[in-house]
């Protein structure tokens, strides 16, 4: 999101985190901007019975956990490394100063946050009222649209991750994906989903 030379100019620290490392917990006060150089991160909430609800997955060049930096509220979810990761870490006040100095980057953040809000609104609607086929298809179409892919799009999520993102059981996702393939709404190749 922010070009690496600009991060380095503002003294961002490139930190290495191991798989399963928690970067911050739900309800903690936000102190840093995080941008992934390499690796993958998930943001999630835990229910009272210990079930995870995934808020999102983030990979190379993506940032995560920004809304609390702008809104001055605690983290609404936790963040954990899904793999070993190298992440740029920039103090909150330096991050906000950088955005004031670079309105073009600030505008890109606004656009990105709006896209995330649209995704959240779609998922809330899907989880509350729609059947599994509709939920899965909406998620996959959103991912394809967000990737700006015009042809066949490879979905880089496991069935478990699709389950976590849609609030469905894994078994339901597996059956749903097979039904969507049968209906011609997606393609399966070597157990990978394409849309």
UniProtKB/TrEMBL annotation:
Gene Ontology molecular-function annotations: DNA binding; DNA-binding transcription factor activity
Instruction: Name the domain of life.
Output: Bacteria
**Every Cyclic nucleotide-binding domain range:** 15-116
Q: For the HTH crp-type domain, which residue ranges apply?
A: 130-195
Any stretches that span the bilayer, and where are they?
Answer: none
Keyword terms:
DNA-binding, Transcription, Transcription regulation
Q: Identify one Gene Ontology CC term for this UniProt entry.
A: cytosol
Protein name stated in the entry: Cyclic nucleotide-binding protein
Recite the lineage of the species: Bacteria, Pseudomonadati, Bacteroidota, Flavobacteriia, Flavobacteriales
């Amino acid at each position: 999101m922010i070009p690496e030379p600009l991060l380095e100019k503002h003294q961002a620290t490139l930190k290495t985190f191991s798989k399963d490392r928690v970067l911050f917990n739900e309800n903690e006060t936000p102190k840093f901007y995080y941008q992934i150089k390499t690796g993958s991160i998930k943001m999630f909430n835990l229910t009272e019975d210990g079930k995870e609800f995934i808020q999102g997955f983030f990979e190379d060049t993506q940032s995560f956990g920004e809304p609390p930096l702008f809104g001055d509220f605690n983290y609404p979810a936790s963040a954990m490394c899904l793999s070993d990761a190298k992440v740029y870490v920039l103090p909150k006040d330096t991050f906000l100063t950088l955005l004031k100095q670079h309105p073009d980057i600030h505008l890109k953040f606004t656009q990105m946050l709006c896209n995330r809000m649209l995704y959240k609104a779609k998922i809330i609607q899907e989880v509350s009222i729609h059947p599994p086929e509709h939920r899965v298809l909406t998620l996959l179409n959103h991912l394809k649209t967000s990737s700006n892919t015009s042809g066949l799009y490879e979905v880089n999520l496991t069935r478990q991750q699709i389950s976590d993102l849609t609030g469905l059981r894994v078994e339901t996702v597996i059956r749903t994906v097979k039904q969507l393939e049968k209906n011609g709404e997606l393609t399966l190749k070597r157990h990978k989903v394409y849309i």
